[in-house]
Design brief:
Maf protein, 6-stranded mixed β-sheet, alpha/beta
Length: 200
């Protein structure tokens, strides 16, 4: 496993919150993680209709542009009452200004407007790792939970303050980084990546 991560790996994101979490989750791999933003790489248009497709698109684009192994996460909030929305469009619901306070309110109002009392939701993370020689690994992680309103906590990023993971009495926004890493969709995807690397 260590040979695959000797040297630098590009984290294909321009999102500071996601970059922070990915660096923390990559630390046990011994990776020297640098972001696509740090390297001045352009953000590709996310044209995929699934988390997996977008993750692979971002990883391959960063890998091709940098000549380095690249890892990408595509993740989002999937609300049962909304038929899985915002899903792959989770970031777009926050608009060009990335206003997730407004996005959370939009999700909550849309859920209420369905007339359903179902507040079930899940966070899903697809992670893709691409090498310059064409090899790739794709994995996925998921955590189920409930929407809460009003949002609780200032931790994490994105929709974290309105998501209460199953088995917890605190939202992702109320958890420490270590607590979130013990249960999050992204942490589960990275655990699956570690298992896949150990089998290679």
């Amino acid at each position: 496993m260590s040979a695959l991560f000797s040297g630098r790996v590009v984290v294909a994101t321009h999102n500071p919150g996601k970059l922070r979490e990915m660096r923390e989750l990559l630390a046990p791999f011994g990776a020297d993680a640098v972001s696509a933003g740090d390297l001045g790489l352009a953000e590709p248009e996310e044209t995929g209709t699934t988390f997996a497709a977008n993750a692979l698109l971002k990883a391959r684009t960063a890998c091709a542009a940098s000549g380095l192994p690249a890892i990408a996460d595509d993740s989002g909030l999937c609300v049962t009452a909304l038929g899985g929305d915002p899903g792959v469009y989770s970031a777009r619901w926050a608009g060009p200004s990335k206003d997730f306070g407004a996005a959370m309110e939009k999700v909550w109002e849309a859920t209420r407007a369905t007339g359903s009392r179902d507040r079930a939701a899940a966070f899903v993370s697809a992670v893709a790792l691409a090498w310059p020689d064409g090899r790739r690994i794709e994995v996925e992680g998921r955590v189920d939970g409930l929407l809460v309103w009003p949002p609780r906590g200032q931790g994490g990023f994105g929709y974290d303050p309105m998501f209460l993971p199953q088995g917890w009495d605190r939202t992702f926004g109320e958890m420490s980084g270590e607590e979130k890493h013990s249960v999050s969709h992204r942490a589960r995807a990275m655990a699956a990546l570690r298992a896949a690397l150990e089998q290679r």
